[in-house]
Amino acid sequence: QVQLVESGGGLVQTGGSLRLSCSASGRSLGGVAMAWFRQPPRKEREFVAGIRWRDENPFYANSAKGRFTISRDNAKYTVYLQMNSLVPEDTAVYYCAARLEEPGTKIFRTDDRAFASWGQGTQVTVSS
User: Fold this and answer.
1) Phi, psi at residue 104, to the nearest 5°?
2) 76 DSSP assignment
3) Which residues contact 9 (CB under 8 A, 6 or more apart)?
4) Nearest C-alpha neighbor of 77 from the set 2, 18, 19, 7
5) Geometric angle at alpha carbon 36, from 105 and 91, rounded to 5°
6) Which residues have a Cβ under 8 Å from the Cβ of 77 and sit 6 or more positions away?
7) pLDDT per residue as tens, the chain (128 positions)
8) Alpha-carbon distance 48 to 64, whole Å?
Protein backbone atom coordinates (compact mmCIF):
# COMPACT_ATOMS: atom_id res chain seq x y z
CA GLN A 1 0.00 0.00 0.00
CA VAL A 2 1.25 3.45 -0.82
CA GLN A 3 1.70 6.11 1.86
CA LEU A 4 0.69 9.66 0.93
CA VAL A 5 1.64 13.03 2.38
CA GLU A 6 0.04 16.27 1.21
CA SER A 7 1.57 19.73 1.40
CA GLY A 8 1.02 23.19 0.00
CA GLY A 9 -2.16 24.24 1.71
CA GLY A 10 -2.60 27.60 3.35
CA LEU A 11 -4.53 30.84 3.48
CA VAL A 12 -5.11 32.74 0.25
CA GLN A 13 -7.36 35.58 -0.85
CA THR A 14 -10.17 35.23 -3.38
CA GLY A 15 -8.72 35.02 -6.86
CA GLY A 16 -5.42 33.66 -5.63
CA SER A 17 -3.63 30.41 -6.43
CA LEU A 18 -2.14 27.48 -4.57
CA ARG A 19 -0.34 24.35 -5.66
CA LEU A 20 -0.87 21.25 -3.59
CA SER A 21 1.61 18.40 -3.69
CA CYS A 22 1.13 14.76 -2.75
CA SER A 23 4.27 12.72 -2.14
CA ALA A 24 4.00 8.96 -2.30
CA SER A 25 6.16 6.30 -0.72
CA GLY A 26 6.04 2.60 -0.09
CA ARG A 27 5.74 1.50 -3.69
CA SER A 28 6.01 2.96 -7.19
CA LEU A 29 3.07 4.74 -8.78
CA GLY A 30 2.93 2.28 -11.64
CA GLY A 31 -0.65 1.21 -12.25
CA VAL A 32 -1.94 3.59 -9.59
CA ALA A 33 -4.66 6.14 -10.24
CA MET A 34 -4.37 9.26 -8.13
CA ALA A 35 -7.01 11.73 -7.05
CA TRP A 36 -7.70 14.77 -4.94
CA PHE A 37 -10.76 15.00 -2.73
CA ARG A 38 -11.83 17.75 -0.38
CA GLN A 39 -14.05 18.10 2.65
CA PRO A 40 -15.52 21.55 3.25
CA PRO A 41 -16.59 22.48 6.78
CA ARG A 42 -19.70 20.55 7.87
CA LYS A 43 -19.99 18.82 4.50
CA GLU A 44 -19.24 15.42 3.01
CA ARG A 45 -15.95 14.64 1.31
CA GLU A 46 -16.13 15.20 -2.45
CA PHE A 47 -14.11 14.36 -5.52
CA VAL A 48 -12.10 17.23 -7.01
CA ALA A 49 -9.77 15.80 -9.66
CA GLY A 50 -8.15 12.54 -10.68
CA ILE A 51 -5.51 11.29 -13.05
CA ARG A 52 -4.95 7.84 -14.51
CA TRP A 53 -1.66 6.01 -14.65
CA ARG A 54 -1.70 4.52 -18.12
CA ASP A 55 -2.50 7.62 -20.15
CA GLU A 56 -2.37 10.39 -17.53
CA ASN A 57 -5.83 11.42 -18.61
CA PRO A 58 -7.27 13.91 -16.09
CA PHE A 59 -10.80 14.01 -14.72
CA TYR A 60 -12.39 16.96 -12.93
CA ALA A 61 -15.43 17.75 -10.88
CA ASN A 62 -17.54 20.49 -12.43
CA SER A 63 -16.44 22.85 -9.66
CA ALA A 64 -12.79 22.36 -10.67
CA LYS A 65 -13.01 22.49 -14.45
CA GLY A 66 -11.21 25.45 -15.94
CA ARG A 67 -9.61 26.44 -12.63
CA PHE A 68 -7.74 23.40 -11.31
CA THR A 69 -5.14 21.24 -13.02
CA ILE A 70 -4.00 17.84 -11.81
CA SER A 71 -0.67 16.44 -12.92
CA ARG A 72 1.72 13.72 -11.88
CA ASP A 73 5.46 13.18 -11.94
CA ASN A 74 5.94 9.46 -11.57
CA ALA A 75 9.70 9.78 -11.39
CA LYS A 76 9.30 11.99 -8.32
CA TYR A 77 6.42 9.91 -6.87
CA THR A 78 4.42 13.12 -6.71
CA VAL A 79 1.00 14.34 -7.79
CA TYR A 80 0.09 18.01 -7.97
CA LEU A 81 -3.07 20.05 -7.91
CA GLN A 82 -2.68 23.56 -9.28
CA MET A 83 -5.60 25.67 -8.09
CA ASN A 84 -6.27 29.05 -9.67
CA SER A 85 -9.05 31.62 -9.29
CA LEU A 86 -9.82 30.37 -5.82
CA VAL A 87 -13.07 31.35 -4.14
CA PRO A 88 -14.27 30.96 -0.54
CA GLU A 89 -16.29 27.90 -1.57
CA ASP A 90 -12.99 26.11 -2.20
CA THR A 91 -12.20 26.26 1.50
CA ALA A 92 -11.74 22.68 2.67
CA VAL A 93 -9.33 20.04 3.83
CA TYR A 94 -7.83 18.58 0.68
CA TYR A 95 -6.89 14.91 0.60
CA CYS A 96 -4.75 12.93 -1.79
CA ALA A 97 -5.89 9.39 -2.56
CA ALA A 98 -4.63 6.41 -4.54
CA ARG A 99 -6.05 3.20 -5.95
CA LEU A 100 -4.92 0.49 -8.32
CA GLU A 101 -6.37 0.86 -11.79
CA GLU A 102 -8.39 -1.95 -13.29
CA PRO A 103 -6.77 -2.93 -16.62
CA GLY A 104 -8.80 -1.93 -19.64
CA THR A 105 -11.41 0.18 -17.89
CA LYS A 106 -12.27 3.61 -19.25
CA ILE A 107 -14.18 4.64 -16.14
CA PHE A 108 -12.48 6.79 -13.52
CA ARG A 109 -13.92 6.08 -10.10
CA THR A 110 -14.79 9.25 -8.22
CA ASP A 111 -16.34 7.71 -5.12
CA ASP A 112 -14.02 7.83 -2.13
CA ARG A 113 -14.81 4.21 -1.20
CA ALA A 114 -12.86 3.09 -4.28
CA PHE A 115 -9.59 4.56 -2.97
CA ALA A 116 -7.52 2.46 -0.60
CA SER A 117 -4.79 4.91 0.36
CA TRP A 118 -5.23 8.38 1.81
CA GLY A 119 -3.08 11.20 3.05
CA GLN A 120 -3.69 13.12 6.26
CA GLY A 121 -5.03 16.17 4.43
CA THR A 122 -3.95 19.77 4.04
CA GLN A 123 -6.09 22.80 4.89
CA VAL A 124 -6.93 25.32 2.21
CA THR A 125 -8.66 28.50 3.34
CA VAL A 126 -9.81 31.15 0.87
CA SER A 127 -10.71 34.49 2.38
CA SER A 128 -13.25 36.84 0.82
Assistant:
1) 90, -15
2) G
3) 18, 20, 94, 122, 123, 124
4) 2
5) 150
6) 23, 24, 25, 28, 29
7) 899 999 999 999 999 999 999 999 988 888 899 999 999 999 999 999 999 988 899 999 999 999 999 999 989 999 999 999 999 999 999 999 999 988 887 889 999 999 999 999 999 999 99
8) 6
